[in-house]
Structures are given as structure tokens and as C-alpha cells.
User: What shape does this take?
Amino acid sequence: MAPYESDDAVGAARDEETRSGRRKAARYAVPVAVVGVAAATIGLVPALADSGDPDLPKVTAQQLIDKIAKSDVQQLSGTVKISTDLGLPDLGGLESGLASGLTQGSGSGSAADPRSRLTELVSGTHTLRVAADGPDRQKLSLLEQGSEYSVIHNGKDVWGYDSKSGQVSHGTEAAAGKDRRAEPPATPGDFAEQALKAVDDTTSVTVDGTAQVAGHDAYKLLIKPRQSGTTVGAISIAVDAKTGMPLKFTLTPRSGGAAVLDAGFTEVSFARPAASTFDFTPPKGAKVTEQKDGKGPDEGAAKPGSGKGLEGEGAKGLEGTKGASGGTVLGKGWTSIATFDTGAKGGLPTGAKGSDLGGVLGSLGDKVSGKFGKGTVFSTRLINALITDDGKVYAGAVTKDALVKAANAGK
Assistant: This one.
């Protein structure tokens, strides 16, 4: 068995990673359901070049973690391909109604509002163009067939533009700071940052050879849970050998098959982008919606990085703490389960006025029962959630049996 780092070394790595994360120029929010419970024990296993892969100097996992933490890329431009396969069912055209019910009250209602547009990244394959020039200028464009959606941060202004509808969303840097959901996911580094936030003994982290990603030599960092009962199989992060910036992030489920999340650069340059990249003027006749500095119907909701709801500072820091709506996190590491009481009897939400969201959700879930009473479990290839008939919710990257056991223990 390989030796492991001391607790002091592991803690120091986590602190350095947190400080470095605050420096990064192109920092965006992360889908919280993907890597909110990641944790790590650092294995001192050196990287060995596989046949056909770059022959790089040997490094330990601890050294690679340090390299990521110290990475401070200020300028870049490139293309990122993101594929998400949660195994969500085909709703036969009901997707829009379901999404409306689940997101009612969030965002400004504009087709250019990042808070509503980011739900598109939950499934399917998407191509993003990203660019950054220091902490004050970033741009992300979601490329679609015949259209494009862009978020541009230039100085104090944050613009969202949907070319298909011609709508524009405008806010300020201060507003975006109050509502992190206005910051879309952009690069593999965004996902890697969350996966490495918490460090404890529930996970093994080793170096798993080398690779070439977007023409750059890279080391592969492998993160695997030690706990049973989780739906997570492994996380692989390809780290640029020169800059330490993550170039590719892949999360595979324990059940096998295709990756749940695969995000990687297909091309990337660390040269300074042209200043005109970040220029934006609303097209003539465009409908411009002004954001209200984070104030609105969704103020106070759980925000990425706020420690509320299902996310926060990692499983170790969240254990037994209070979250949004009086929620708590049970357990630790990969088998953490977030639980809260909706206060709604009858279990399933009804959704927007005139919609049958409860009926739609009920048809997609599995009925379960136990000491807690009765409820419905909704399953994906990664995240499962139990909604009991008395309005309690249990959710995490855990099996259905683990959710039922947690609900039984809660009675």
C-alpha cells in the first residue's frame, strides 16, 4: 500500500488551493450536483508515462495538487466541449413545462439571463468558446445551431446576449458578485476546483499517467472514493504540465458506462486575447433587461459557494451544519446526504399555476416506504433524491437504499 501525506500537509494543500482559487481570472460557478461532496487523501504514487503518451518528469499526487493550487493563468482563449449524461428520462416534450415549474421565480425572465440559460448545460453536448484577460475581462459563448448565447464581463459591466431572440441582459460586477449563478461554468478548472475543495480520508488521489489534451502535455490526476454506497466511480483531471491549469475533467459513475460529465478543451491558447473580444454594444432594437444588483424574487436562495442548500465548502465542513431552509448534511465524504423540510405536505411540488408538475414527477420516480412512511425516489446516474409524503427531501450522490436508510434514521 502506498504511504499517504500527513494531516498537516493535506490541510496546507487545501488552504493553498483555496487562496489560489480566489486569484483566478476566469472563475465561474459550478453545477453543484456534480462534485459537491468530493474529498481526497493524497497518494504518493508517481506518474508513469503510458505508451504513446508524453514522457514527463515523475511527480507525486501532492506535487500535482500543489501545481494546480499555484496555477494563476491570467490570459487564455479556447474551445471547451462539455457532455453531460445524467440519464434523465425522455419527457416526450414535457421538458419545458417541467423546467418552468422547477425554476419558477428565479432569474429575470429574459432569454439572455444567465440564471435561466445555464440549465441547458444539465444534459447533452455543448460547445463553448471562452476567453479571459485578467480578473476584469472574461467572455463565454455557448455555440448553438444558427445562434449564439454569450456572457461578457468587461470592467464593471456584465452582459448577456441571446442572438436568437435578440434579448440582452445587463448588470454590474457588484450584482454578479451577489448572485454567483450569473457566472456560468466555463473550463475544466471550474469543476476541478470544486472536486479538490475538501480533503479527508474518504478518497484516494493518485497520479494516473500522462496524456495530450488540446495539443498540451498533461498529467492525469485520479480521484476515487473509498466509501461504499456512493454512485460516483471516479474523477479524472488532466493537468497542463507547464501551467498547472486543468485541461480536462471527467466524472464516471460507479455503475459504469459513459461519463456523467466530460468537460475538456479541444483547443486552448495562453496568449492575451484581443481587447475587442470583450467589447459589447446592444444591437439596435434589442430588448435590454437591467438586473437589480441581486435583488429579486430569488434573493436569499442557495448560491454556489455560499454554503447553503446542497453545496458549500465540502462534506467535511458541512457535516451537521445548517443550510438553506434549516437543511442539514448527514454523514461525510462521498456518502453525504443533504436533507431539508419543504414544509409541503403531500410530498411532490405542484409547480407553476395550471401545471401538473407533481403528476409528471410522480410518474418518473420509484415509490418507496419504510419507518419514515412513504415517498418517491428520483434517480439519475449520479444524484438520487427521496421526497417523502410529509415533505422532507433527502438527496446526494448515493444509492436509493442509502436514502431510505437515512430517512428511516431521521424518524
